[in-house]
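Figure-free illustration: sequence to structure, shown twice.
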Amino acid sequence: MGDGICEIAIDGLPPVARQAPPRIDPVNQLDEDGQMVAIPEEAYTIKRWQVFCIIFVILGAFGGVVYFIVLPIKSYKPPSVLKPEPGDPSRPFTDPTPEIHKEKPWEQQRLPNYLQPYEYRLTLRLDVTKATYSGSIVINLRCYHPTEYIILDIQDVHISDNLVSVIDLSTGRIQPVSDTFQVSDRRTRYIISVAEKLRVGSIYRANITTFTGRVNAEPPGLYTARHRTRRSGDRRMVVSGLKPTGARHVFPCMDDPAMKATFDVIIEHPSDQIALTSSPSESTTTLANGWIRETFYRTSKLSTHLLGFALFEGLTELERYSSRGQVVRVWSPFDPNTSPAAEVALNTTLDAISNMKDLLGLDYLLQKTDVLPVPGQIVPYDVYSGLLMVRDTLLFCDVDDSSIRDQLQCAMALNHAVAHYWFGITVTAAWWSDLWVTEALSTELAYESLACHFPELSMTILASYDTINTSQLWSTLSQATDSFVNVSVVMNNWVSNAGYPYVTLRQTVENNGARRLYIIQDAFSYFLASKSTLHWNIPVAYKTRDQSDARVLWLNVSIENISDDSSKGEWVLGKADSNGFYRVNYGPGNWKLLADQLLTNHTVI
C-alpha cells in the first residue's frame, strides 16, 4: 500500500525489511498554486524502464558505499612477452592546463597536477612474523609546469631524508635537492624541494632509497590477519587495505585516483612464505638467511589504491587456466581435494567472469586472478587488480551443508568482486567523491550476472571510459533514453542531498468549488520538529479509485497543485505500484478511505 516503504526483491534475494510509517502531521493550509507538469503518453516505453532500474539500484548502493574505485582498460601480455618497455616518456604533453598554484601547493586538497607519475619501481621487504617492514621506491615523472617541488602523499611511513635524490632523465643530470620536509595538517605530505625548477617537457626520477613502516592490526595500509589450518593451527598473513586512501600508508606516492602509472614490484620475503601482488611472478633470486627476492611483471596502468599485496603461509591453491592462458586461483586453508568449498568458489568466480563478459561484450584481460580468503576482513571484499580479497566466511560455501541464503551471499560477494574489474579497475573514479558511481554500477552488474539475466543496458558504453565521474554517468544514461529523460536533472539532488523525501498528497476544494490535488515534498525525518529546505526531483506516480492506471507527475518543487478530476469521497493513492524511493503521507480523510477500501476489496489498490 502507499505507506512509502519501497521493498526491493531482486532475482530471488530477500526484500529489505519494512519499517513502520512515520508519524507526520497533515498539512492543514496551503496557499501556493502550481501548474500541471505534462507527461507524455509514452513515458515508459522501449527499455526506458531499464534506466530507472539502474537509477534505483544506484540510490540503494549509494547509501551503503564504503569505498570505490577505478582505472583504465589495459591488458597483460602473455608471460613470454609480458615485460614491456619502460614507461613511454616520449608521449606528447597534451594534458589539460595545470592548476593555478598556491604559495604552498602542498596545502591543496588534491596534489597539483604539474607533475604526473608514469612509472613506479617499488621494493618491499616483508615477513609475516614482523611488525615492521622496509622498502625503497623510484618514481618516474613527467613535468607539465615549472616547479621546484615534488609533493608526495605519505602517512605513518618514515623516510631517511639523506637518501633522497632527483635525476633529470632527459639529460641524465642530477637535480640537487635543496631540502626535504614533511607537513601534517588535515593530510600528511612529503615534499622534495630542488635547487632549480623542473622544466616543462622533461621527465624526472625521484629516488627514495629507504623508507620504513609498520604492519598494523587493521587497515588502512598493511595489516595482519590470522587463519587456521588443519595441519599447522593458527597462521598469520599480511594483506593490504588501500581503499580509498591507504596506499600512502604503505609507500610514498601520488595517491590520487586520476594519477595512474605502471608498477614494477619486488617483494623480498622468507622462502617459506608466499607473496602475491597485482601481476604474475616473473623470477626469484635466493638471498642470505633463507630469504628470496621475488620480481613481478609490470602491471598495467593503475591508480595507487588498486595495487594489492599479500604475504602468507599455510594456504593451498586450486587453479584453472582459460583457453587464452589466463589463470584463476582460489587459495584455501584446507586441502581442496577433501572439501568442495574451494572448487565451488573457483567455479563461481569463473562463471562470474564468463557471464559479465557476455553481458558487456567486453573481454576480461587480466592474465592472472588470485582469490584470497581474509579472516575477519572488515569489508566483504577488497578488490585489487589481479587480487581479490574476500572475507573467508563469504568465500567458502558448501552447497551440501549451506542454506540457499548463505549460498546467495557467497555468490554475490564473488560476483561483486569480479564486477569491479569492469567498474572499478577498467573504469576509474576521477576523484574520491565519484567512487560511488563505480560501486553502484558493479552492484548492478553483479545482480545481472548472479541471475544469469541479460538486459540490454548501456553498460558497454560506460565501460569504454578511462575514468568516470558523475556527469559522465548521467550523460550516458540520458543517451540510453534518446534524451527523453535528462538524468542529470533527475539525479543530482538524489546524490547530493542527505536522506530521502516523503510526499504528502491532499485533496482540497477551493472557494470557487474547484477540486485540487496538492502534492508536497519534504525531507523525511523521524522527528516532527525537523525542518528542511531540501528537495528532490521525484516521479510521483498516483492513481484514484476510478482511474486505475497510474499517472506520473515530476515533482521538482516543494509544492505542486493540479486539477483533481476525482469525485467527492474518492481516495487517491500515491507511489502507485510501489514504484519510487520516497515515503507517502495523506490527510486523515484519505487514510480512512484507503483503509475502508482495503477492508472491502484490497485488490483494487
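We now fold a second protein in the same way, so the two outputs can be compared directly.
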Amino acid sequence: MGNEQPEPKLEPTPTADLARLALPATDPPAAASAAPSPLPSPVPAPEVHRIGTRVVEGAGEFYDTVTGEAFVPRGANYVDVREVVPGQLWEDYVFGAGTFRPDLVREAFHHLADYGYNTVRLHFDLCVQGPSCIGRAVGTGLNPEFLDHMVVVMNIAADEGLHLIMAAGRVPRDGLYWDRFAVHHTFEEGLESLGALDENGYYLHPAGIAMQAQYWRDLMSDLALRRAPFEVVLGWELQSEFWLHARKPPLSLARGLVTLPGGPTYNLADTEEKRLMIADATLAWMESLAAVVRETDPEALVGIGVAPSALQSPNPVAARYADVVPLLEVAPLDFFDLITPGVDWDLARQAGTLWSGAWQARPAILGQVTIPRGLVPSLDVAAVRAQEWIADSCAYGLDGWLVWEYHSRPEPESAWGMLSGEDELLQALAPANQPDACVETDLPLYNLALGRSATASSSGAKTPPEQAVDGTGAMWSAADAAPQWIEIDLGGPQTVGSLRLVVAQYPPGETHHQVWAILEDGSSTLLATMEGYTIQGQALEPVLVEPVPGVRAIRVETLESPSWVAWREIEVRVAE
C-alpha cells in the first residue's frame, strides 16, 4: 500500500418507491404505476435538533437546546431478535418486510414515555441478508420497504416525545455493497497487512471505509427523500460495538512496514508506532463516515459504541483489541456509548480499562445495561442490582443509561428485559419513580422466598439449601439422585400468586417435579406438577389458576431427574 489508491466508482442507490409513503403503515403497498413516482425536489433541510452537546466545567453533557437544561438519556434498546442459526446467529426484525409491527412499536414507545423514559436505541442492520433486511435483495442499494418502516418508527418516536439512538452493526450482505468492492483493486491491495475486509480491514482498509461510506450515504439520502424526521434522532452510532481482532493483521504482526493511503509508513516492530498506525487508520474511518452522515443532516450527533475489550471473555481466534484510549482522545465524535459486559463487573476495573479523562469532554452513556439471568436469577435482585450499578457509574461521569432490552425473552441465559415479571425492571428504573438515576430508591420485593430459611432432604457440602433462595445464582444441590425435596419457610402466612424455578441440571433430560403449599393448619395442597424435558438454566413457571392464601411454606419435590437434584433459584411471587 505504498501509493494512494483511487476511490472505487460507486453505483447510485436505486430510487425508492415514494408513492406508498402517504399510506398508513398497516395498509398494503400501492399498486405500481406505469411511470415512476416523481421525486420531491428539493428535499427540505432537517428541522433543528432538540438535543445537542456542550461542555460544562470540563465535562461533556447532552442538553435540551430549547430549555437549556441538561438532558439525561434513559430508556431501552428496542429489538425483535430471532434465532436464525441455532446457537450461532441472531437477527433483529423490528423494521423487516413481513415482520414489522408498528402497533407494537407504538405500544412500547407509549409505555416507555408514560414512565418518563426519553430515549430508545434501535439497531437497523442486525439483519444482514434476506427479504426482511435493510439491503435490497436483488440489485444495488437498500430495501425501500425497510426504509419506509424506519421512517414510520421515527415518526412514532416523535409522536411519543422520545429521542432515538440509531446504531449500525454491519454493512448488509444484500445490496451488492460487498460485491462492488470485492472486484475493485483497492480491495486486494494491502489486505495482507491490514487484515481481511470482514475483519480488521473493515475499519482500517480504504475499501472497507469506502464501502461503509457508500452504505451510509445511501441510508441518509434515502431517508431524507422520505422526509424522515431527523430531529428525533439523538445520535447516529457508526458502529454499535466497535472492536478490532487482536490476533488478526495488522495487530497480530510483530514486524514489517505498513503505509496508509496518503499517510506515513509505520514500523510494526515498534509498539508505539503500531498503536499510532491503528489510531490513525481508525480515525480516518470515523472522519469519513461522520462526514457522510452530516452531508444530509448537518446538525447530527455522531458517536460509536465502544467495548472495553479487556473485560471480554478470551477468545483464541478473535480476541478483542483493548487499547482504545488513544482513539477516544482525538476521535471526531460527539458522544461515546460504552458497551459493558453486564452488572456483574467491577466498575473500578472497567474505569481503569476505558473510562478515563480521555472522553470526559464529550457525553458518554451506557447503551446496553445488561442484567444476565444466569448471573442474577432473581428478578427482585436484578432490579436492585441494576439501580445500584447505574448509581455507582455516576461517580465516573456517565451521562445516560439504556437497558438491554425492552422485551423479555425466554432463553435460559438471556438478559432480564424491562417487561420481565410485571414490568418490574421498567418500573424500578423509571424516571417517574426514580427521578435521579444516581440516587437509589427503596424497591418493593415481590419474591416471598428471597433470603428465607430453607431445609432439604440432603445437601452437598458447598451447596446448602439457602443458596436456592439467595438471588445470586449459586445453587442448592442434594448431591444425590431423585427423589429429593427442598422446603422454603415463608416466615408466616402469605398469598402466593406465581412460581418461578430455575433449573440446575446436567445432563438435560426428562424430569418430574411437584410443588406443594404447606398451609397455616399444617395441611398441604398441590400447586403444580411439572413434567417434561428440561435443561440447565431453564426457568419453569407453572401457572396457578388463582392466588393461594395462607401459605407458610413451599415444598418442591423432584421425583425423577437424569442428574443429581438441584435448583439454581426458587422464586415464590406475591399475588399482585
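Summary for the second example: Residues 271-296 form the longest helix (26 residues).
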